[in-house]
Amino acid sequence: MENVTIAEAGLEDLNDVAFMFDQYRQFYDQNEDLELAKEFLGGHMEHNTSIIFLASFNGRNCGFAQLYPTFCSVEASPILVLYDLFVLPEFRNRNIGTSLLNHCLSVAKLRGASRIDLETSYDNTGAQKLYESLGYEKDNEFYKYSLEI
Question: Cα separation of 80 and 143, whole Å?
Fold first, then answer.
């Protein structure tokens, strides 16, 4: 029987998560750099500055989600930013992304978060469809700005 499990990733999972994180970055037009992926994620794991969930399908690691805890001053409450969500291509269309998102929602509720925020590129229509199917709504009230440094 096919089985999806979700668990919080630890340093013992760093190689698998870093491999997928590197694939994720390449999806967003970044150069392949497995060492950078390991350093970046390892630092977050060691300092507890993000929460990384690892999805396994029939015992094989196949996807991850990374959340950054932060706060909403206006609501005076904690929120989570879902910054990274990735499923290896050969495991897509098996509800792994949905399982990861549902797990993130459960954790957000346990932590007393008022919401989960996320962004995706305009052309990532597959992800948009998934998010919207789970109740995420596009923000039509605020613009997003960035300042490159």
Answer: 19
Please give the Cα distance from 29 to 25 (Å, whole number): 7
Strand order in the sheet with 4-8: 4-8, 51-57, 60-72, 77-87, 116-118
Crossing angle of helices 34-47 and 14-27, rounded to 10°: 120
Q: Which two tokens stand for residue 78?
A: 């904690």
pLDDT tens digit sequence for 114-149: 999 999 989 989 899 999 999 999 998 888 888 899
Task: Quickly count: other Cβ atoms within 10 Å of residue 64's Cβ.
Answer: 27
What is the rounded CA–CA span in Å between residue 63 and residue 19? 10
Domains and CATH numbers, the chain: 4-133 (3.40.630.30)
* Cα Rg, the chain, nearest whole Å: 15
User: Using an 8 Å Cβ cutoff, are 71 and 64 in contact?
Assistant: no
Low-confidence ranges of the chain (pLDDT < 70): 1-2
Average pLDDT, the chain: 94
